[in-house]
Amino acid sequence: MNFIRMIAAATFATVVATGFCFAEPAALKELAPSGKLRVGIAVAPSPGAGNVAMDANGQPRGVGADMARELAKKLGVPVEWVQYPNSGVLTDALASGGSDVAFLPVDGERRKKVDFGPPHIVLQSTFLVPPGSAIQSLAEVDKPGLRVVGVENTATTRAAQASLKNVTMTNVKDAAQLESLLRSGQTDAIALSRESLIQIANQVPGARVLPGAFMSSFVAVAVPKGKPAALAYVSTFAEEAKASGMVRRSLDSVGMKESVVAPPGPLP
């Protein structure tokens, strides 16, 4: 356990008891240097484990949006939403200072670019097949000639391609394009988190989410590297959000009732 995680662990009991994170001046300066909390969001047609959707009023809806609003409230600053087409672009923007915080799927490539606090969602990724498909298992997706599509520069697509030995995936810029290809019959399988795929399947009668997973990981709060006070603060916040039931309520509110809240503690 590194020094920053030790700080977060030491303050966790106080946070749970009070239900409130007190913003140290250093944390506030690192998290909201502009006076606003600039929250990076990956926007998709429906909310998922690592992305949000926009409602009729143009406001983001999803677990990451709920957590960001609560974080900004505890900091005492307004939220500024910074939209990106996918979590890969969002990760690069966060790393370069384009936003102050984000809630992202975790993988090894991202750990090189940003610092993660404790996870709040257990993430599984799999494939969805279109109506009428004969494919029944993950293994059946890995057959020469099949058209498999994912979102470029994402943890899910990297893991999906690694799992496929006989198929080279085609990548698109965002989840909306995935759904369009599915509806138009231009793909044999699409790769996303199980939560996102369930949402798509609900909108495309006959589409099926395959059992099992080619990736099991987490979604966690992330900040740019070199911001130890910010990391300590959001780490404590994430633990409190799990312990208070906030993450569970947020998942349920967007129909992700089968999603699993991550256990207490830092990333493995």
What are the salient characteristics of this protein?
alpha/beta, D-Maltodextrin-Binding Protein, domain 2, 2 domains, eight-stranded mixed sheet, two-stranded parallel ribbon, 10 helices, 12 strands, 38% helix
Quick summary of this structure?
The protein has 10 helices and 12 strands. With 268 residues, the protein is of the alpha/beta class.
Describe what this molecule looks like in 3D.
- It is a single chain.
- This protein has about 270 residues and is α/β, with parallel strands linked by helices.
- It has two domains: about 5-120 and about 220-260, Periplasmic binding protein-like II (D-Maltodextrin-Binding Protein, domain 2); about 125-210, Periplasmic binding protein-like II (D-Maltodextrin-Binding Protein, domain 2).
- Helix 2 (about 25-30) crosses helix 9.
- The chain has ten helices and twelve strands.
- It is elongated, with a radius of gyration of 18 Å.
- Strands 5, 6, 7, 8, 9, 10, 11 and 12 form an eight-stranded mixed β-sheet that branches. Strands 1-4 form a two-stranded parallel sheet. A two-stranded antiparallel ribbon has the order 2-3.
- The protein has helices at about 5-20, 25-30, 65-75, 85-95, 110, 155-165, 175-185, 195-205, 230-245, 245-255; strands at about 35-40, 55, 60, 80-85, 100-105, 115-130, 150, 170, 190-195, 210, 215-225, 260.
SSE topology:
Layout: H1 3-18, H2 25-31, E1 37-42, E2 53-54, E3 60-61, H3 63-75, E4 79-84, H4 87-95, E5 102-105, H5 108-111, E6 114-129, E7 148-151, H6 155-163, E8 170-172, H7 175-183, E9 189-193, H8 194-203, E10 208-209, E11 215-224, H9 228-243, H10 246-253, E12 260-261
Parallel strand pairs: 1-4, 7-8, 7-9
Antiparallel strand pairs: 2-3, 5-11, 6-9, 6-10, 6-11, 6-12
